[in-house]
Fold this protein.
Amino acid sequence: MAFDNQQEARMGAGSSSEEASGTWFYAVAVGRRTGVYTVWPDAAAQVCGYPGFKLKTFRDFSEALAFVKENQLEGQEEEHEVTFGETEAGTDPDPEHPESLVTFCDGSVLGFGQPFCNGGAAYACIFPHRREWDEVASVAGSEVTNTHVEYLAAVAAMERANYEDPSGEDVLFIFSDSLVLIDCMTSWVSKWQTNGWRTAKGRAVKNRETIERLVNAQGGRRVLWRHVKAHTAAEDWASHWNSVADTEARGTAGTNASCL
């Protein structure tokens, strides 16, 4: 079934239990992030409210992927390869399984720009299934930004994954409340590289050195980037661990921040 407007896409939320179980493949050819999804809410989030979207459901993964490739707009060709959300049913581990390679990344910047204050900054990458791998560290500098420390958290997570799994065979889940980080790695970075590290407006890409570290650290490893909303006080698994990462980063940043 193909959805041609926002109303029909919303109607899809009432899919049958068979569809929800993963036997359907939702192909998003035009949307926020193109790709093949096996979970309806993930697919719907890419098209609801998006003008001119193209989405179609299939029983066969190959047919779904072909639909994406054949119907993408210019400039979106790479996005069906990114691993934001569900991509290949039956191949991705469950992030809540204790054997999965999972990290929650966050950063905090406190006190910078405030009168009579010394700022503090830190990042945290938390491995819920391997707490001994956690890394929480202060970041020095007078012009540190939230985006920068979010990037550093992801660098630390990937480098730890590479140390523990040097073959790069294990899928790495990175949960973050930073859409800037996720968009950078799933959409923007390939375009920046093609443009000589210039944005679409011709400006030099900020944090280029750290982003290059991210790209090099990922290498050939398959990374599934997952967004989790911050500061919701929700009690689900992802929200809990995101809160742990936030608390660790803020606590460490706070030890270095002081105001008269």
Q: What stands out?
A: The chain has a mean pLDDT of 79.
